[in-house]
Design goal:
The protein is of the alpha/beta class and 516 residues long. Helices cover 32% and strands 25% of the residues. A hairpin with a 2-residue loop joins β4 and β5. The longest helix has 16 residues.
């Protein structure tokens, strides 16, 4: 008896989609086996998100065919995609911040009973049971906007799974997750594929791709470059296929200068307490160095960065700049010409940029008064200043007059950083700056950080990717439960030491390496 192999769950046949003169995807063909976890890799702007939007019914192809389970489908709307069994968890979170978790879970349509009435009690029980199956602890009645970014991303994923899809699209879900939450997602994907659910997974992190996925497709400049089993490619091969060239050195060399040889601290915290977590934190940031802050999710790192920018009040201790105590009641205080502190926040789309405004306006906004003459903005001077910085951070000149939201995540992040260079910041607070950024752009940001420090700037740097902290930081402070668990310098900075302290394995006074 002849046995036929099942049709691929997803098939792209010569699919193309253009936006004006820009070809987002061009003649792309690939397929995904049913019940597989398949990675979609490429730089920002390579066509990955366009591919997801095509499958989600948010846009339609200009040419080519999309087949689901071997049948051609016209996915002209999200409703069409839902009918085809496709659900998506986007990186750009779609939760309504002012609605409760339960209400968000029921969007865009809720089950109703007799005469169209919403069976809220029964639905709440089902949603609670769904969260329990996914090992999630969350208050159904909490407003989504009050939850941290990682929990909002998990709810986004839970909502996609709640509708029992046959195909689950995950658009960079781990960019907002760290530590145990990433492991949680791995278990979710393994369970889904074990039930023959097909997962298409976008990520810039190869360890996750290797842990979660069996196969992959690589796109570059909107075109199909390669596909195959994940195990068939080395990390170096993947990088070269993604960016079209090799990266001889992923991380720039550290300064190698001990803290004692650097100038006096430009930023210092003494027994600093802020927010609900941060307690008695002492650190010193000197010109010419990158000081890494390592911590698992919710250990006070965001309170530290926000307090140093005047975004959350200080409840104890003090912040000093140039060995003088400062009172930062608002971010405007941090921008004062005598301080010049810039802050790159966790979520560039909602906190770092105005996506509907052009790059020039975004980049000049913190210091727009510098370009104001008689109540009017000198647009020539403003554009000259921003274009000069865009050249430094390698952003296309068209960013000057194009909405920030039209650019890829990597270019948006560059514009967000350019803002603080236009402001002539001498202290940069970079909170997870490479989140959701492709490998090529990461390399550019690494070089930019090191060049800023080498020129005498000071960088306070948090990353959810431990290798970045290991290879970029001149010193590392590890936080656990809002307190300093360890201080690491020079050769003592390694992943094992950082993770050990981040898990509470070192004493609060522990200092490893040269004196900190």
């Amino acid at each position: 008896m002849t046995r036929f192999a099942p049709a691929p769950a997803i098939t792209f046949q010569s699919v193309s989609k253009a936006f004006g003169a820009t070809k987002a995807v061009s003649e792309v063909s690939f397929s995904v086996a049913p019940g597989a976890a398949h990675a979609l890799l490429g730089e920002n702007g390579a066509g990955k998100s366009t591919t997801m939007k095509l499958l989600s019914g948010l846009i339609v192809p200009d040419s080519g065919d999309i087949l689901i389970d071997g049948q051609a489908k016209r996915l002209a709307s999200p409703r069409d995609a839902h009918r085809a069994g496709i659900r998506t968890a986007f990186q750009e979170l779609t939760l309504v911040r002012d609605l409760s978790v339960l209400d968000n879970m029921l969007l865009p349509s809720a089950p109703t009973g007799w005469l169209g009435t919403l069976r809220r009690g029964a639905v709440a029980e089902r949603v609670a049971a769904h969260f329990e199956r996914l090992d999630m602890r969350v208050d159904l009645h909490a407003e989504a906007g009050t939850l941290d970014l990682a929990m909002r991303q998990k709810i986004e994923i839970a909502r996609a799974l709640y509708r029992d899809p046959r195909i689950l699209l995950l658009d960079e879900p781990t960019s907002a997750l760290a530590g145990g939450d990433v492991d949680w997602l791995g278990r979710i994907i393994a369970d889904a594929t074990g039930r023959n659910l097909t997962v298409l997974f976008i990520s810039h992190r190869m360890p996750e791709v290797r842990a979660f996925c069996q196969s992959m497709t690589i796109l570059r400049n909107g075109r199909h470059i390669a596909d195959g089993a994940v195990s068939d490619f080395s990390d170096d091969q993947v990088v070269e296929l993604i960016i079209g060239r090799s990266l001889d050195q992923t991380f720039p060399p550290r300064s190698g200068r001990p803290a004692a040889s650097l100038p006096p601290p430009v930023l210092e915290t003494r027994s600093l307490c802020a927010g609900p977590k941060l307690r008695d934190v002492v650190l010193q940031l000197r010109p010419g160095e990158i000081l890494g802050v390592a911590a698992l999710q919710g250990m006070g790192q965001l309170d530290l960065f926000s307090a140093c920018f005047g975004a959350v009040p200080v409840s104890g201790g003090e912040i000093r700049v140039d060995d003088r105590p400062v009172h930062l009641s608002t971010p405007a205080d941090a921008l004062h010409p005598s301080l010049r502190i810039g802050f790159l926040p966790e979520d560039r789309k909602t906190q770092g940029l105005f996506l509907k405004l052009d790059g020039t306006t975004n980049a000049s906004l913190p210091v727009v008064d510098r370009f104001t003459r008689g109540g009017l903005i000198d647009e020539t001077a403003e554009r000259a200043a921003t274009e000069a910085v865009f050249s430094v951070v390698d952003v296309s000149p068209v960013a000057s007059f194009t909405e920030a939201g039209a650019f890829s995540g990597g270019n948006q992040q560059k514009i967000a950083i350019a803002k603080w260079l236009v402001a002539e910041s001498r202290i940069l607070l970079l909170f997870d700056p490479t989140r959701g950024i492709d490998v090529g752009t990461k390399h550019q940001l690494y070089d930019l950080m090191r060049a800023f420090a080498d020129a005498g700037g000071a960088v306070l740097f948090h990353s959810t990717e431990i290798p970045e902290l290991v290879h970029l930081s001149d010193r590392v402070v590890v936080l656990y439960e809002g307190r300093v668990a360890a201080r690491l310098e020079t050769d003592a900075i390694d992943e094992r030491a950082i993770m050990g302290a981040a898990l509470g394995g070192a004493s609060p006074a522990g200092v490893i390496g040269a004196a900190a």
